[in-house]
Each structure stands twice: as C-alpha cells, then as structure tokens.
Write a structure and sequence with these properties.
The complex is a heterodimer of chains A (about 450) and B (about 425). By secondary structure, chain A is α+β, with helices and mostly antiparallel strands. Chain A is about 35% helix and about 25% strand. Classes of the chains: A alpha+beta (about 450), B mainly alpha (about 425).
C-alpha cells in the first residue's frame, strides 16, 4: 500500500495543496489542509504531520496515518490520534506518545512551527545567492513513502501560480513567444541554502532549529548587505549570535543607520567586546554615532586600556578630517634598527596592523624622521640599518585638521598608498591608507 | 591636541531641529499637498463654515489611525506592505497593492495638475510646465537624496502659514467659527456636500500615508521604550495639519464663499490670500502650490514603488541599477509618465483631477484601515501592544462612518441624478 499510488506528479507545490479535504477511511470529513509540519533538522525536511483546519480551529494528524495522498483529497486512517495545537511537539529521542508527556516536563521536546507559517510569504536568506528574498511557494518531492521539502520558489512564475493565474499567463506567453524563458525556468532556491529569518511573529516557545553555520560562512560584506535588507528584529537576532570578530567586521560594512540600530540596544559590555575587535579608527567612527555618555560607557568597558585611550584620542577629531580618518596602528621602528630586527618585529606585529606597506622611522620623542617602503628593505642586505635606506627628505605628510578631500588629492598626486599624519614638532600621530578614503570618495558615508 | 572644527552655531541648531522632526509631523505635513489645498479651498468656497465641524472627527480619526500605524511599525519593526504580505498572503497583498498603485496614480496626477495650475498662474502653458517638471522630478529622485527632497518639501510647506496670517488679517467672526467647529450641523448637509466630505476624508486620511509613517518609524528604529514619544509626535503632527486646514477653509469661506465665487481653477483659489498679500496673492499661492506639487510628485511615486516592491519581494532602491531592480524602476517611471500624460489631455479640468483623486483615496481608505485593525489585534504581530477593546470599538465606528459616507455619496451621485 503506497501513500502516493494515485498521485501522478513527482514534485508538488505548496500552493496546490492548500484546502485539500482530509477524509478518513470511513468517509468522515475531518477538515481542510492548511499547512505541514516538517523535520527542520534534516537537509531536505520530511513531512512529519499535516495541519488542517476545521471550524476555524487548527489540528494536526501525523504523516504515518496518511493512507492516500492526492491533490484532490487526502485519506486518513480511521480513529487515529488527532493533535490539537498550533505547533508540533517533536520528541528528541523517541516518538512514543507516552514519553512525550514526560519529555515536555523535562524540557527535551521541540515545538515545531508549521512550515508555511514561517517560510511562505516571508523573507528568507538565500545563502548561495547571498541575498534576502521573499518566498512565493514551496516545492516538495515524493521520495519513497515520504514527502520532502526541496526548494523555495521566488520567481514571477511562482507568484502567478499563487495568484491562480498560472494557466492564463502560460497561455498568453506561449501565444506571444513559445520559447520564452518564463515557461522553462522557475526561479528556485535549493532548500539547503534557505535560511529562515528569526521572526517575532512565531510564538516564542517555538524554536527554529536551523543552524547559523551557513550565515557565519558568509563574507562580512555580504552579511552586511543581508542585514540591511532585514527587519530590525531579525537583524538584531542574527547579529547578536555572531562572534565578536565577525560582528566587528560586519559592523564596519553596514550603512550608518543600520549600524546605529544594531548597537543601540546592545549592552555596553557586548559592544565593548565588538569594538575591541575593530580597527581603532573604525571603532572611533562607530562610537561617534552614539551619544557621548553612551560612548563613554562603552569605552570604559573596554578591557585593553591602551586601545580605550587611543579611541578616546581619535574621537577628539572631526570625522571629515585626517585626524578622524587616521588609524593609530602603523609599523614603527627606531632609526638604528637593522633589517633582521625589523623583520622580527614584523612577524610579531603584522597580526594587529592592517596592510603594512611602509615602515615609519621615528625618533626618541616620537617625531617622524623617515619612511621606508617595505620592498626597499626586502631588497637590501641583512645587516643594513634602516636610517641608511629610508627617505628622509621631503616626506609627504598631513596634519590632523586637514580635510579628507585635500588628503585624497595629495595621495592621488604623489601616488601614495598611505600617508602619515603628524602633529606639532613632527610627532607621528597615525596614518591614513587608501582604503580609509575609498568609502568617502564613493560617497558611501 | 586639536578640538573639533567649529561649525556656525545656527547650522548646528537647524540640523538638531530637523533631526527632532518626527515621522508623525512629517507625514501629516506631506498630506497638505496639491490635492489637499484644492479640496480645502473648494470646501471653503462652496460651503463656507458649514462643514467645519467635520474636521474635528476627521482629525481624531487621523490621530487614531496614524497612532496605530506608528505603533505597528515600532512593535513589529516592519513596514505595512511587509506585514500585510506575511499575515494575509500573496493574493490579498497583490490586489491591495494594485489598488494602492491606482490611488497613487490619481494622487500623482493631482500633483502634476497642481504643477500645471501653478504654471498657469504665471502664464506658463501646461504643455511646457508638466513635461519639464516630470523630467526634473524623475532626475531628482534618481540622482538626488530622498531625505533632502523631503526636507525641502517641508520647508516649502511654511508657505501655508500665510493662510493663518491671512485669516488673522480677515478677522472673521471667531465666535461663529468656534460654533461651526464644535457643534455638528447635520441637518443642513445636502447630497452635493457628500463628495466634499469624502474628499476631505480622502485628503486627510490617505492610504499611502499609513505606509509612509510606518516605514518612517521603522527606518528611524524607534523602540517600544519610546512609544509615548511617538504618540505625542503623531498628535502634534495631526493637530498642526488641522490648524492649516482650518485656516485654508476659513480664508476661502470668508473671501470666496461670501462673494459667491465658484472655484474653477487655481487663480480663483488664490483669491483667499488677497486680504494678506493683495495683488501678490496669486504669486504667493502659485509658488506654494508649485512647491507642494513638485516635491510631492517626487515623493509619491518613489514611496509607492518602495511599498509595492516590499510587499511583492522585489529588489528596490535608487542606488540599484535598472538590471538589479527592474520592477522598482518600471513602477516608479510609469507612475510619473502616465500621470503626467493624463494631465496633458487637452481640456481636462485640472481642478476636477485634484478633487477626484482625493475622492478615490476616501473610497479606498476603509479597506486599508480594516487590514490595519486586523494586524493591530494580532498578538503575533504586536506582542503586548495590541489594541484595547475600547480602541477597537472606536476604530470600527470610524470605519463604519467612512463606509456610510462613501455609500451615501455613491447613492446620490449615481442613482439620484
């Protein structure tokens, strides 16, 4: 006895199942099909139970009691167990009903929300296309005695199907252009790339057990684009699950408005952790978006006092000037250092400093005496002293008050990858590199 | 160490001030667009002070509706189209968005009619002013900054303060006006008043405003902690709109209604400013009307295409390319092109377009309100911030009266004539 003996189709659409009558083997009408409960823990989730509606109330019947499934009617075994709940309790260890009660008290059952409710018409993250999309339809495939979820449909064709215009539009398109791509290609996302977005609307006792691993594998810049497209609730939930390092990298990429909304409601300790992972100049920019009291609260929670002081210092400068843009992390050596000791230092420090291109040679009171491009040093003998190969005449530098546009035109004129920022008495304050200026040049700020 | 650069203090003050202007205040003022001015002027000129009492319940209704939309945005963090899609499914979303496009096509037409009327005051033919403006509007949205457009628009709305000044100069019988506002004069309503009432309703409580305020609230990221601030923001915004509306009607009633002028074009409506501005009244009115129409013609199609894309799940955003977001740019461009083209039809009554579009709004708004109410009562959406039973009672009462007025209008317009 197969459940699909009278079903011709191999794959079926969610939209075609809505409202199918459920009838018992005795011929009693139970209600109309509303939704499916599936095992979210599987890659291609199998249907565990069918949710149906009768007299405006929601019930469910488990898949094993389904005798015959067609798109006209679903035959259910007579006198089977009928559950009355909006969610489906799934025991983690075994599925015997008596132990389920026990499980509920020990806290090891899972409440599964219905599939359509959390996926259909909602935004999901397509982790392969790396964007946020809205689901129009869901595709199942019959495999053995099971019905499994395989794809989320997002294109125009699935939209027309939901609206009930599929045949009409097909007819029109065929008449105009029989070779149209619309007829052949349905825009589908493979279920393993579908990541449901945490939703406030699904009651809080129901947990979505989809893993965040796929999300964490995304590039921070892609993740930032995705967060920008989500509503504030889903955005904050995904963000708060990121580890501080990824959170910091993502935060550097998102738009200012989204950035504020992400950090506004977090605890100061949590933001302090994220801020510590950022480059000091980005950290200062981020804190500048907050009120002074809030920013100070966060800075005081930063464990590394040196970082905290540097951030405080940078916050003194206007955002649009060299001082506001500069980074405090640069590769700095004394004039008497030789190649060997510099390379030793390089090994130790290159983790903390972004793109080391130039070596900045500073005197005893921190004044800039010369610059040596790292490639020049590499080409020299091992015992060479940096003061003998550095450029010390006519060093191109800028003051912290200089506007970023002037800095940019200077760097363009002299073909510089980075430029030192010097204060009174030629004290080295920091450097500005090209990538600090790019967002401003592209008008992304 | 160098301190932050000094910005002139007045610049900082203006920036801070603009930052405080809340979504409620902005939305309520964008409501005073070309169609609004036309409807108020007509109401004053045709019925004098007789319908002033209608404004009070309309304002209360507006406050309640806007408060619900704002609360929904705060509680759910989502836009209205988004919520309609998730709660009611694709089919309902699709048809309501089609209605929204239709209503906003009417509204955009009204804005272009406003531009044409303003042009005519200065002797510029609509065949020049409308095509040029529509091209400018299109470029402004694609190349300009949406926030700046919004602010320039609001700044231009200060022109309406001249109605208040004009009202003071006219010095009408304030006692009579107070009675007209507070005491409903139901007996004197005639069947020809019904389209005006629907128009007043439609121009005050528009469908797209509800989408607008909700997305503004979401965009600002207001949290439930600031629910009360947002309520005050809505009340202040709606009240300021009420005051402007009141004075427009009073000015028109005191000048046009008393001298028996029938408004047929914008020149007539400008007469209401004569006591204040004398022979410059038409210039003042023309500039005000042009500003309101031009910037609203930019904001409306843009906002509409955002909501449609939000509900349908299409890519949107002016920073995208046409290839990335084809539906967004198509809807936006078509709205501008079609409405500008329709206004250019020879011998079309510009003033009738202005009023007619507001009537479409008035007919459509009860449907949107029913969705809003259903959403506001859904704990899945609102959490603990659902409507109270009393609030629901009055909301349904408002919808009931809206439908009643609509039915009355249809009855008298189509069956009694």
């Amino acid at each position: 006895m197969g459940k699909f003996n009278d079903l011709n189709e191999i794959s079926i659409h969610f939209s075609h199942t809505e409202g199918i009558p459920l009838i018992t083997t005795e011929g009693k009408k139970l209600g109309k099909l509303k939704d499916f409960f599936v095992d979210y823990e599987e890659v291609y989730p199998a249907v565990l139970a069918i949710q149906y509606k009768s007299n405006n109330q929601l019930f469910y019947v488990e898949w094993e009691y389904v005798k015959n499934f067609t798109l006209k009617e679903v035959i259910i075994e007579h006198d089977c167990f009928i559950g009355r709940s909006r969610s489906f309790p799934k025991a983690k260890t075994n599925k015997v009903i008596t132990s389920l009660l026990a499980n509920q008290f020990s806290g090891s059952t899972m409440e599964f929300p219905p599939l359509g409710k959390i996926i259909l018409d909602r935004q999901v993250v397509d982790t392969s296309g790396k964007k946020v999309v809205r689901v129009n339809d869901i595709q199942f495939i019959r495999s053995g005695q099971n019905l499994r979820v395989t794809h989320a449909a997002i294109g125009m064709r699935s939209m027309m199907r939901r609206l009930g215009y599929e045949k009409f539009i097909d007819f029109v398109v065929k008449a105009i252009n029989p070779k149209s791509l619309y007829l052949k290609n349905e825009v589908l996302i493979n279920w393993k790339f579908v990541h449901a977005v945490p939703n406030k609307n699904v009651r809080s006792n129901v947990r979505l057990t989809l893993s965040d691993d796929e999300i964490k594998k995304l590039h921070p810049a892609d993740l930032a684009d995705i967060l920008e497209d989500l509503d504030s609730y889903g955005r904050e939930l995904i963000f708060s699950n990121l580890d501080p390092k990824l959170a910091a990298e993502t935060l550097q990429e998102v738009e200012d408005e989204v950035k504020i909304s992400l950090i506004k409601n977090e605890k100061p300790e949590v933001i302090a952790k994220i801020i510590e992972e950022m480059d000091v100049d980005d950290a200062a920019d981020t804190l500048n978006e907050l009120s002074d009291t809030k920013a100070e609260q966060i800075i005081s929670k930063i464990e590394d006092t040196e970082t905290a002081d540097e951030i405080r210092e940078l916050r003194e400068y206007q955002e649009t000037t060299a001082g506001g843009l500069m980074s405090k992390e640069y590769f700095e050596v004394a004039p008497e250092s030789d190649k060997k000791s510099i390379l030793e230092k390089f090994k130790k420090e290159h983790d903390y400093i972004e793109n080391i291109i130039d070596i900045f040679v500073t005197g005893e009171s921190g004044e800039l005496v010369g610059i040596c491009p790292i490639q020049n040093l590499l080409l020299c003998d091992d015992n060479v002293l940096v003061k003998n190969i550095m450029i010390s005449e006519d060093i191109k530098s800028t003051e912290p008050e200089t506007h970023w546009k002037i800095v940019a035109s200077m760097m363009s004129k002299y073909n510089l990858m980075n430029i030192p920022v010097i204060g009174e008495d030629k004290t080295m304050l920091g450097i500005i590199s090209v990538d600090d200026l790019l967002p401003w040049l592209l008008d992304e700020k | 160490m160098t301190k932050k650069l000094n910005v002139p203090p007045f610049v900082t003050k203006i920036i801070v001030l603009l930052g405080i202007v809340g979504p409620g205040l902005i939305t309520a003022n964008i409501d005073n667009d070309a169609g609004g001015i036309a409807t108020y002027s007509l109401a004053g000129a045709k019925t004098g002070y007789r319908l002033l009492w209608v404004l009070l319940p309309i304002t209360v209704a507006l406050i309640m509706v806007q408060e619900m939309s704002a609360r929904m945005g705060i509680a759910s963090g989502k836009g209205l189209a988004d919520l309609i899609r998730e709660k009611f499914g694709l089919r309902i979303t699709f048809y309501s968005l089609i209605l929204l496009i239709f209503a906003d096509l009417g509204n955009t037409m009204a804005e272009f009619a406003g531009i044409a009327s303003a042009g005519e005051i200065f002797g510029i033919s609509k065949y020049i002013s409308v095509p040029v403006s529509s091209l400018l509007v299109w470029l402004l949205v694609l190349k300009g900054d949406y926030k700046i457009v919004e602010r320039v628009f609001l700044f231009g709305c200060l022109v309406y303060l001249t109605y208040i000044a004009s009202g003071v100069v006219i010095s009408p019988d304030w006692g009579e006006i107070a009675t007209a506002i507070l005491v409903p004069d139901v007996q004197s309503i005639t069947s020809s008043d019904l389209p005006i009432i629907v128009g007043l309703l439609g121009t005050s409580i528009t469908p797209w405003m509800q989408f607008y305020i909700q997305s503004a609230v979401v965009e600002k990221g207001i949290t439930t902690k600031h629910l009360w601030h947002s309520k005050i923001d809505v009340i202040v915004g709606c009240t300021s709109m009420l005051i402007v509306t009141l004075f427009i009607i009073i000015c028109c009633a005191a000048t046009l209604f008393h001298s028996g002028v029938v408004i047929t074009d914008a020149k007539d409506a400008a007469l209401a400013l004569e006591p204040l501005a004398g022979k410059y009244s038409s210039v003042l009115f023309g500039v005000g009307l042009f500003n309101a129409s031009f910037f609203a013609a930019a904001l409306l199609p843009l906002a509409t295409s955002y909501y449609v894309c939000e509900g349908m799940g299409w890519e949107s955003g002016v920073d995208k390319t046409f290839k990335e977001a084809p539906n967004f740019f198509t809807i936006f461009t078509l709205l501008i092109v079609i409405s500008a083209a329709l206004v250019l039809i020879p011998n079309i009554g510009l003033f009738n377009i202005l009023i007619g579009s507001q009537i479409i709004n008035g007919v459509f708004i009860p449907i949107v309100l029913i969705y809003i109410l259903k959403l506001c009562n859904d704990p899945d959406v609102m959490g603990e911030y659902t409507n109270t039973p009393t609030y629901n009672f009055f909301s349904y009462l408002i919808i009931f009266f809206m439908i009643l007025v609509n039915l009355g209008m249809f009855y008298f317009e189509f069956f009694k004539k």
